[in-house]
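Let's see one such:

===
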Amino acid sequence: MRYLCSALLTSWLLASPTWAMAEQSKETSLISKADQTSLTEKPRAKRKGGVRLLTLNTKAGKALEVRNDMDVPVTVTVRLSRTVNVGGVGNGVIRQTVPANSQLRVATLQKRQQGFPMHYDQAFSFSPHFAPGSGGGLGNPNSLASITAGYAYSLPWQGGPFFISQGANGDFSHHTPKGRYAVDVAMPEGTPVVAARSGTVIEIQNRQFGHGPSPSGNFVRIQHDDGTQSAYLHLKRGSVVVREGQKVTTGTPLAQSGNTGRSTGPHLHFVVQQGEGDALVSIPFRFARPVGELPNFALGGQ
C-alpha cells in the first residue's frame, strides 16, 4: 500500500502558539484590580505556569514588574504607545529576559512634568527564551543525524489508523519557520489526544468556539527537559483536562481532537519547536513507530 497521505482531505493552516498579548489604556488596566499592588503590598501569586505584568505605585513612579511562574525563562516585551508626560522608557519598547519562577522590575515610568497626569497605552507579550540552537544538545536540528539520535515521540493520539493530510514542508501552510515540520493528522472530532513526551504543561486554551478568534483554536503546549516544546492544536472546546504547570508523562490524556481555530475539518496539528532568541521555530522529529507506510514526514518526504 502506498503512502497514507490522504488525497481526499484538505490541509489545514498552521497557527502559531498564542503567547499572551493584551492592549490597554492607562485607565483600563492590563491586570485586574485585585492584582494592582502598592509598594508595600506583595502581588498575589498566579497559578503555576502563568506570566503577568504588574503595575506598582512607588515613590519614584509607576514600576512595571513581570512575574514569571513558568518553569522556563521567558523574554517579555512591553510596548508603550500614545504616551503623554511619560519618561524613563526611551523609545517605548521594553524587552527583558525574566528567569524561571521569579519576578523582575523591567521599567519605572516617571512623569516628565510633575503636577500633570501621565497617560499611555501598552501591549504586553512573552515567549520562552532559549539560546539559538538549543535543542537538547543535538547540534543542527535539521540534520538526519540529529533526528535519528533525537527523541522518538510516541503517537499523540489513541485509535486510528488515521491519515496524514499535510506533512513537513506542506505547500498549503507548513512553509514558515514556526510550522515547517508540523504534521496535520485527520481524525474524527473527539479522538483522545495524549502527551507524546513527558514534560510540563506551560500553556493551554480551552474556551474557544468554532473558528475564531485565535487561529490555533484550543491547544496544549508542553515544555520538555531538553528545552524543546510540543504543541497540540485545534482541540475540542472544553476537552482539555490538564492545567498549566502540571507535570505529564508519555501517554497522559491531554484533550480531545477538534475543529477549532483556522481549520477546515476535524484534525490534530502536532509540532515540535525550539526557541531561537525570543522566537519559536519548528524542528524535525520522528515518531517511535511508523505511521502506516508514510515516509519520514519530518524530513519532508513525499
Observations:
- The domain at 144-299 is CATH 2.70.70.10 (Glucose Permease (Domain IIA)).
- The longest helix spans residues 144-149.
